[in-house]
């Protein structure tokens, strides 16, 4: 047993091969059986790292005598969360985050799979870097880490990366991270190339020229603070171009982040036309707005910037309806030296792996979202888009599971977070929903105190 801060890691092969049952739980997840038992209590039986059974029949009286039994006391048991946008620091930015620290934070927050951004130092544009990430994740990671690789060499937006070789090395998707590709011809070629390999293209939509030196959402609030703004159109113009290229090439396209009603209109048209287009929203844009910046709070300086409250509500409604597919943490650790600066000079970004679930539960508590839909957007939909077997409570699926009490209150203490950086937008916020147990492949990788 290896102990971490507020967690326990277990690697005993005897425990791994012993059947494990989580009983007396409220099961929430995208199982084909869910309609039969979602209103009551049930359990999950895990054998050899896979879900052997799930539902009301998994109870202590029906289990084999040698099974290890954990009584969940009515807590929620769901698939582990899958985060499609997180910066893990390696290689080259270990002062901000490492795979060890990022996956420790993920395990504590109920995230069992991370899609790592490719904009590292060097970027993930060669097969050797993909191999490095996979080996580091295997050796130091607590949860699954899937690399995404660069769409263009050096993330420069000029020459297409070797998508075929990178995919063969283990890259799960292709993106230039926080870099938006200016040249439509380059992006068209990249998407055509990706289509030939049935690879997923993830693109961050922003017209950098139109965004200019903007540091927050353009509007009255930015004017009152004396800060330059980023217009909503900077996102929408590029997203509209991207969707048209998806129609032209037939590539699978995923918008890394959508934050405005203009973008929602574009996504709605694309889906109505039957295009292979999906999108994500960050937990920050779902639960915060530009007013939360208050007195120049740099931990809330994000890219894209936080929008108005009416935009936030439209994002939540789009998520509830299924127009928005996925919720991401947009985990982007920044150290003190780059955040404790005047707002306009501070780096963009906030950490989010450890608080994504709790922040999302705010929407459930307010009645804006159902718990089933919240969990689906953090588990099944990203699994479907990335074509992963986890993210569901189906028999035969990997036993990547979490147990949490959606109503247990706590206050976010940055000092207790596992990330190397502490730039959380929820500093000292009152939250509900503590993760008590995280399993990856049937092994306990986090157990709350």
TrEMBL record:
Keywords: Pyrimidine biosynthesis, Zinc
Keyword Hydrolase in annotation: no
Pfam families: Amidohydro_3, DHOase
Positions of the Dihydroorotase catalytic domain: 75-260
Keyword Cell inner membrane: no
NCBIfam families on file: pyrC_multi (TIGR00857)
Protein name: Dihydroorotase
Species of origin: Methylocapsa palsarum
């Amino acid at each position: 047993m290896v102990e971490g801060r507020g967690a326990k890691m277990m690697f005993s092969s005897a425990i791994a091969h012993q059947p494990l049952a989580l009983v007396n739980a409220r099961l929430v997840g995208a199982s084909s059986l869910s309609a039969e038992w979602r209103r009551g209590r049930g359990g999950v039986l895990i054998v050899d790292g896979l879900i052997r059974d799930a539902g009301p029949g998994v109870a202590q009286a029906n289990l084999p005598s040698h099974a290890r039994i954990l009584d969940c006391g009515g807590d929620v048991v769901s698939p582990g969360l899958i985060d499609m946008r997180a910066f893990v620091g390696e290689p080259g930015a270990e002062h901000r985050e490492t795979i060890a620290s990022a996956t420790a934070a993920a395990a504590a927050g109920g995230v069992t799979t991370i899609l790592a951004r490719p904009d590292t130092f060097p970027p993930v544009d060669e097969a050797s870097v993909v191999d490095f990430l996979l080996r580091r994740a295997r050796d130091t990671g607590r949860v699954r880490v899937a690399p995404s690789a660069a769409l263009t060499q050096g993330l420069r937006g000029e020459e297409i990366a070797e998508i075929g070789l990178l995919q063969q090395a283990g890259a799960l998707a292709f993106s230039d991270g926080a870099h938006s590709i200016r040249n439509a011809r380059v992006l068209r070629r990249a998407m055509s190339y990706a289509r030939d390999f049935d690879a997923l293209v993830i693109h961050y939509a922003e017209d950098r020229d139109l965004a200019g030196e903007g540091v927050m959402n353009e509007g009255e609030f930015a004017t009152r603070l004396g800060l330059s703004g980023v217009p909503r159109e900077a996102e929408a113009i590029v997203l509209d171009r991207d969707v048209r290229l998806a129609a032209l090439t037939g590539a699978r396209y995923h918008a890394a982040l959508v934050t405005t009603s203009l973008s929602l209109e574009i996504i709605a048209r694309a889906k109505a036309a039957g295009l292979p287009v999906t999108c994500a929203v960050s937990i920050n844009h779902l639960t915060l707005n530009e007013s939360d910046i208050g007195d120049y709070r740099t931990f809330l300086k994000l890219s894209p910037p936080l929008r108005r409250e009416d935009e936030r509500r439209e994002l939540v409604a789009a998520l509830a309806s299924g127009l928005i597919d996925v919720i991401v943490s947009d985990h982007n650790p920044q150290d003190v030296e780059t955040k404790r600066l005047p707002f306009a000079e501070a780096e963009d970004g906030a950490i989010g792996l450890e608080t994504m679930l709790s922040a999302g539960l705010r929407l459930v508590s307010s009645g804006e979202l159902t718990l089933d839909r919240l969990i689906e957007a953090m588990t099944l939909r990203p699994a479907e888009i990335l074509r992963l077997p986890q993210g569901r409570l189906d028999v035969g699926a990997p036993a990547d599971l979490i147990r949490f009490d959606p109503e247990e209150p706590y206050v976010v203490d940055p000092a207790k977070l596992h990330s190397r950086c502490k730039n959380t937008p929820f500093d000292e916020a009152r939250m509900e929903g503590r993760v008590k147990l995280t399993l990856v492949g049937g092994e306990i990788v986090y157990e709350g105190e």
